[in-house]
Design brief:
Strand content: 25-35%
Number of domains: 2
Low-confidence stretches: none
Shape: globular
Number of helices: 12
Radius of gyration: 22 Å
Largest sheet: 9 strands, mixed
CATH superfamily of the largest domain: ANL, N-terminal domain
Structural class: alpha/beta
CATH class of the largest domain: Alpha Beta
Strand order of the largest sheet: 4-3-5-6-7-8-9-14-13
Number of strands: 21
Bound molecules: adenosine monophosphate, zinc ion
Length: 431
Amino acid sequence: MKDLALVERMPRAEREVLQVHRLKDLITRLSERVPLYRERLSEARVQPGDIRSLADLARLPFTVKDDFRQTYPYGLLAVPMEDVIRVHASSGTTGRPTVVAYTRQDVDTWSEVMARTLMAGGVGPSDVVHNAYGYGLFTGGLGFHYGAERVGAAVVPMSGGFTDRQLMALRDLGATVLCCTPSYALHLAEAIEEAGLKPKDLKLRVGFFGAEPWTEAMRDALQTRLNIMAINIYGLSEVIGPGVSVECPERQGMHVAEDHFLPEIVDPATLMPVPEGTVGELVFTTLTKEALPVLRYRTRDLTSMTAEPCRCGRTLARIGRIMGRTDDMLIIRGVNVYPSQVEHALLQVADVEPHYLIVVRRDSALDTLEVRVEARAAVAEAGADAMRALEAVVRRKIFETIGITADVSIVPPKTVERSAGKAQRVLDLRK
Ligand code: AMP
Ligand code: ZN
């Protein structure tokens, strides 16, 4: 495990030599084995020998989600099916799922980057890892499972759901590490409180939360309610799953496993690289993946990146919190609204639980924004006047944050649907 730490701390110039070498090899593999890339690379007139530095990346063609759909299910594979030992899929909301595949080496690489992810939060052999990410086609469950085994921790393969059983396992099996989506962590925190347990009745120390957008305010809430350090993780199936990036204890951005996944930030309109620190679309090139390598995959996720040294000693570049997706921005009456802004506003109101649903409608020509959010039990018990007063407070907070008046519905506790995996928080009925 020691050498993994070295990989993360090598001088950037030294790492770049490795990256360029791997990038050349990737281009060779892609043009030999994947028809879609052979065509695109020849159109772009790029040959492996043309790659001299990472700046040459900008000459390479992009890959988008639709390329996966068009070649469904196995058209992007760069190895024969005999070499594939695992398949996962990402459901998405519409159309065909995105199918991804792994060779034995890929599963090994994935375990390594997941071990690094867990080690960034100090997880080791003496830990008990409660893994409530979904097992199955979703990459979260098995990704964390293999990573936890690799660091030698004891993994409790819970998967999502059956909250009562989760509580029992958390307490009885002595979990020190919690892995799940932030929305499910909040649900677990509530269930723990309802069961009359206090955070100190549990041994939880650190949580790895990701797979969906969340805010700093949600981090504060989870840290207080579970008495843990909450760590943000980011990954996506098309690149490998979780393991792409993770915060270190400094929690000033997520370190990207750049020796395997080469990140770029581009302007989503012009597709040109943006200056360091500027927000744009995150793009990844997989340097070592065998079964399903991707070249400049456009994630649609918006964030910024910095290569500034981090106090933790890792020399890996860091990406900021995902601020939204190029496709989740809502335009309401001409105003750009990101769901994360609404979450941020809600978390500033002490009397609501951050379980919410955003509903956008078009009545005649006008867009309307409804925000449905749960009241804390005490407010609900206090009666209708208290609920109405809370409604006014929430409406004002949202207006201050996004500049739009929302129809706020304060609903009783437990009436916004819970999810054990990724929460569905936006319902756009205009489409
Ligand atoms: P999937 O491939 O189904 O796991 O979904 C990957 C997508 O989940 C990413 O492209 C992001 O939009 C989202 N995602 C994953 N982790 C995070 C995170 N920490 N913060 C915000 N969004 C995330
Ligand atoms: Zn760091």
